[in-house]
Description:
Number of strands: 11
Strand order of the largest sheet: 2-1-7-8-9
Shape: globular
Number of helices: 16
Structural class: alpha/beta
Number of domains: 3
Radius of gyration: 21 Å
CATH architecture of the largest domain: 3-Layer(aba) Sandwich
Distance between the termini: 28 Å
Strand content: 15-25%
CATH superfamily of the largest domain: HypD, alpha/beta domain 2
Bound molecules: iron/sulfur cluster
CATH class of the largest domain: Alpha Beta
Largest sheet: 5 strands, parallel
Amino acid sequence: MNPNIPFRDKETALKLSNAIKNEAKEDKHYKIMEVCGTHTMAIARSGLRSMLPSNVELVSGPGCPVCVTSQGEIDLFFELIDKGVSVVSFGDLLRIPGSNGQSLMDKRAHGADVSVVYSPLDTIKLAKASPDKHYTFLGIGFETTAPTVAALIMQAKKENIENLSVLSFCKTMPKAFELILSDTSLHLDGFLCPGHVTAITGISLYDPIIASKKAAVVAGFEPVEMLDAIYEIIGQVNKGEFHTVNKYRRVVPDEGSQAARDILSTVFYDNDATWRGLGKLEKSGLGIKEEYAEYDALKRFNLVPKDITEIKGCKCGQVLTGKIKPSACGLFGKKCTPEEPVGPCMVSSEGTCAAYYKYKLGEI
Ligand code: SF4
């Protein structure tokens, strides 16, 4: 795509839609996974599926950080509250249900100290303002968010703040990709790769995808950008020639950010983590290094995530691995709605179930 073409241009979008229709072979079904929850929401919001031929299918992947947080990890939020800790969180987590059916919002309504922040660093202001309380930031996110969580820990150590810790359930994408790629039942042809994560990791993250003879295209979040990426994927599949293409260069450098990776490796080490839907993946999480142990809420409060089965009837695990669409969950739109969510895929603003419900995608 010519970078000078406005990425919200309607005519360009229509031209790309037609080009996809011409490029897609009638006798082939193309299955593309959008990995990032922001893509899931942007696709739903823009009505992008209506611009694609019926044999080009988009399925969601494990790129919504709230959705992949395991039930055992979520339950520790409530254990912290029960220990009298003041918890600090992004707004997205407030309505996530624990195994007992209660959310952080419910807990707050009953007197628990739960603060919502826009940046993890805001936790420092809270801790300084109330030195008699202990604040724990709930660290949920991928490579994109994790550097800001690491920055919080580094700053707290620098300022010698003692009434602050982090519950780090940050996760990284390589092992999740490995698992998805090994699942041949998914029959994937390519990936719409997450721009935000790539801005940190660089495009080398996608080498295993190319080695598996599937397409990997980094895309922005505007309809023209996503259509352009889908056109590229279909072209590579038709030719049987695969290489990573970065279509989001206006924001994402091919090499990512070494500075952000340095911050991550200063504070975190790769630990084993349990993902909703994917199970336990070796070295797929970010644990806090020994040098910063005093800021590790797991150690400080002696917490261990339990092996808890997911909420009864909720099929989030299958939704976020592209195995089923939300409408295949018997609770979708009935017992599970954004007003009364049962699972995290309906809670999160990047969740697939929330996107399908909000934009009435129903049976798609
Ligand atoms: S509709 Fe609700 S219960 Fe069903 S998979 Fe989605 S979040 Fe889980």
